[in-house]
Amino acid sequence: xxxxxxxxxxxxxxxxxxxxxxxxxxxxxxxxxxxxxxxxxxxxxxxxxxxxxxxxxxxxxxxxxxxxxxxxxxxxxxxxxxxxxxxxxxxxxxxxxxxxxxxxxxxxxxxxxxxxxxxxxxxxxxxxxxxxxxxxxxxxxxxxxxxxxxxxxxxxxxxxxxxxxxxxxxxxxxxxxxxxxxxxxxxxxxxxxxxxxxxxxxxxxxxxxxxxxxxxxxxxxxxxxxxxxxxxxxxxxxxxxxxxxxxxxxxxxxxxxxxxxxxxxxxxxxxxxxxxxxxxxxxxxxxxxxxxxxxxxxxxxxxxxxxxxxxxxxxxxxxxxxxxxxxxxx
Length: 330
Ligand SMILES: O=C(O)CCC(=O)C(=O)O
Ligand SMILES: [Fe+2]
Fold this sequence. Notes:
The chain is an alpha+beta fold. It contains eight helices and twelve strands.
């Protein structure tokens, strides 16, 4: 358990403008340098100038509000219990992101790449691969989520290119793992924070993300807290028009620890309103093995991990985070 202590105001999470990076190599070099620094310092940065339609973004938050406003019965109809692939709805208390702490005070709905049961990856039993669960009574919901997921995949591919450049590799370094990338999109709703937090109840307990990069959309409400290099917790205040990007354990492994998949947590700062966010977990192909970047020196701590595929690693982490919540909660 990581006991809760109040955060400081954000001052160390930079905003990186991507506008020029879609057209100019020089702008890519500049952005890669800023990404390098951010990934060493906190593992977090905002991106602006990302080119994603603000209407698509607004509609995505609206879709999240519509989903969670449904009856409990409608939400349970797409319960994660019906999916062996980590898709669907889970209620408050279903997940423990900080082992030893109280369960997370959040509810969520997740999709990933929608694969038919006869897709070769599903037939081969590759962890996490399969069909999505879709709510029956929300017209347009599926189309919206798939459009948003498509935009996240485009942005994720671009960011992986910049991350490769940030450690002196080519923009195209990850091409072999980016043909059919994975992208989980998770709608999150954090009810108002329980005032009695004696047993460390948080919206999401302190954790680092498991995959490559997370692209986070926040509604206007503060809540995301990030631990900086000095060990202080700082608030990642929502900035309109941006996404918060953080690197996960796959990129930490890629750099053999030069970049850190940093601890973060959520505590809804509004006493009487829910906070909504959308976390998109961008990931290389399921069977990709994330080796060490040739430009980063080896570190023995990471050598033992090298044999797991992306999907095996994420599946292990997911299992652990739900096992901690007990089998009786969904
Ligand atoms: O909701 C947020 O602000 C962050 C969510 C998060 O860290 C996660 O889902 O991994
Ligand atoms: Fe996270």
